[in-house]
Amino acid sequence: MLVVKDVSLSFGNVPVLAQMQLQAQPGELCVLMGANGAGKSTLLRTIAGEYKHYHGSILLNGQELHHMPVDAQARQRAVLSQQLNLQMPFTVAEVAAMGRYAYRAAERLYDKEIITYALKLLQVYDLKDRSYPTLSGGQQQRVQMARVLAQLLEAPDLHAMDYTGKKMLLLDEPVTGMDILHQQLALQLAVQLSRQGVLVIAVLHDFQLAAAYAQHIFLLKNGHVYAQGPVDTVLSPPHIKHCFGVDVSVLHHSLCAYPLVVTNTAATLFSSSALQATNAY
Amino acid sequence: MKRISLSILTTALVLVMIIAIGTGAMHMSPWQVIGILLKGIGIQLPVTYTEQMPAVLWMIRLPRVVLAVIIGAGLGVSGAALQGLFRNPLADPGLIGISAGASLTAAMLIVLHVFLPFMVSGSIFQTYAQNIITFLGAMLTVLIVFRMSVHGGRPIVSVMLLSGIAINALCSAFTGLMTYVADNEQLRNITFWTLGSLGGATWQTVLAVLPFVLIPVLMLPRMASALNVFALGEQEAMHSGVQVNRLKTQLIIYATMAVAAGVAVAGIIGFIGLVVPHIIRQFTGPDHHILIPSAALAGAILLTVADLLCRTIIAPAELPVGIITAITGAPVFIWLILKEKRLIAV
After folding, report:
1. Quick check: B100 pLDDT over 60?
2. Residue A236 pLDDT more than 70?
3. What is the pLDDT of residues B157-190, one digit of tens each?
4. Do A87 and B232 touch (CB under 8 A)?
5. CATH code of the domain occupying A2-231
6. What pLDDT, in 10s, does the model give residues A72-121?
7. Best of A60, A81, A88, A143 to disrupt the B interface by mutation (most B CBs within 10 Å)?
8. Which of A80, A116, A124 shows the shortest CA–CA distance to A97?
9. Where are the transmembrane segments (chain B) (predicted)?
10. Could you check whether the bond before residue B155 is cis, i.e. omega within 30 degrees of 0?
11. Beta bridge partners of A131
């Protein structure tokens, strides 16, 4: 379980997180949403241990993040960052193997099986000997996901263990750049992991993906949680109007198990005078 | 793969050493070299050689070749480690100020040593003290360059190269000042330093450099796994459990150590640290488990060959080895810049 209590963080004089309160339970896929600059990525990175100058407290399974050594943190939580810039020509298999770094020798007996399993699950096993920088953006993203999965797992089978209270997975826009099939696969994998007790927190921008896969949504605005709960209560037109400034309708369709968020019309975003000016030109 | 590349390089190093030992004003065949060397440890081979040969080999040739091997290995591992630290194949001990800082400190020691009472000249302790001070000077410059090049938590390569230029300029200005106030003999010493030469090799210089190179060569391979993960980026390395700050500090200390001691006794020998990891990567890939030991061996081979060339091309006179490595290394550097243009532009 993850408890974020009264966490504030500023960069220079700019406050990014303001008295943030958040609780996430294992077994749920939690999704952070919000406009650009709402603090989603910063919150995720703070939980990932990147910013040490936060005020307040972050408890991971009852332990304060401050007091955990880096390698102990890495054995409990894996992070998939938004921007990865690996230029050295490591092979795909070597990149995935980097996920096992934090484990001690005794815990590394099944490294090879775990890495193979992770590569196969992300459908990049046949690329395993390819040089990472030569892959496409979406393939690279899947390889990184395999690396993160290899860091998380303790056995070469997703369903072999219950990870409740042991593991946390942080995903910062994990599906950006992936094609629609691999977006679905990646998020279904995240759901599978959460069912095995992994605490999964993902930053997502896509309402459709969030509505389809999230069990709990945190809607962020100006560095604090504006609304939270299951998809149906959080993704309402007033909430979205308030956080994103866009008029939307939430539709339900008999063929679709989740609500569909559609924009009413993009043209209203521009003032009529601006539009007239464009037309006159 | 690892075994193969390491054994090929080891064999090549032994061959190159035997040829280098045998070459010079008094020629010795490889068999004679092996014969004399084995006699030293009590094994008699049926090889004939003249009476002067063992003396020349033990007192002149061997210390020089061994010094080239040690300094070359230091430059090789240092280059590999720095390229890992900066996550860029253009990092080199010469470009980021290690060599300039070391040679400024060395020049200051030459000119100002009369004011330093603990520098009793001639003893091995003096050489050790000199090496340690040179190391500290080099350390300072590389820390400045690294600090300057970090922006938003990661080192920016173009800034790193620019800071390197700035620090190199500053160091050479002060080295120039030292040259200006130096007397005739000091001047000769300083010139020798800035050009780089293994001509002054004795068993004492070998002993003085050995620990400074041996420690990094033994310690850096232990950091290979962490260095591999570090290639993902500083934050990702931290997420994966690497103690990033400790790794960076250790890398800088070891890389500087391996270069600075060499500079203290042989002056600036450029481009070995840049070129060697590159050549090795072409064959073994970027895995630091193989890269670091291979870079040590290949650096040793390259410097031994360069030194062999510089004392045979215009024999009986001798070129400073720094000139040879710069003449051959700089074009490789130019080729690298053209190849890596895309990455530098970021």
Report:
1. yes
2. yes
3. 678 778 888 999 999 899 888 888 888 888 887 7
4. no
5. 3.40.50.300
6. 999 999 999 877 888 888 999 999 999 999 998 878 888 999 999 999 99
7. A88
8. A116
9. 59-82, 94-116, 128-146, 158-181, 201-220, 251-276, 288-309, 321-338
10. no
11. A91
Find out whether A262 and A208 touch, Cβ atoms under 8 Å: no
Owner of token pair 């300083």: B190
Distance, in Å, from the CA atom of B330 to the CA atom of B333, rounded to the nearest integer, reads: 5
Probe site for chain A from B236, B243, B245, B341 (most A CB atoms < 10 A): B236
User: How many CA atoms are closer than 13 Å to the CA of A191, on its beta-carbon side?
Assistant: 14
How many Å apart are CA A199 and CA A193, to the nearest integer?
Answer: 8
Chain A environment of B242 (Cβ under 8 Å): 70, 101
Domains and their CATH numbers in chain B: 62-310+320-345 (1.10.3470.10)
Least-confidence region, from A137-141, A231-235, A265-269, B194-198: A265-269
Residue B212: count of CB within 10 angstroms of its CB = 26
H or E stretch covering A229? strand A224-229
User: pLDDT tens digits, residue range B118-160?
Assistant: 555 566 677 777 778 888 888 889 888 888 887 766 667 678 7
- In B, which residues are within 8 Å of A95 by CB distance? 232
Which uninterrupted H or E stretch holds A234?
Answer: helix A231-234
CA distances from A1 to A28, A159, A164 (A): 11, 20, 8
Residue A220 has a pLDDT of 94
Beta strands A29-34 and A216-221 are: parallel
Q: How far apart are CA A246 and CA B331, in angstroms?
A: 58
- Closest to A96 (Cα-Cα) out of A73, A136, A124: A124
Output the six-digit token pair for B340.
């890596």
Q: What is the CA radius of gyration of chain B?
A: 20
pLDDT above 70 covers a percentage of chain A that reads: 94
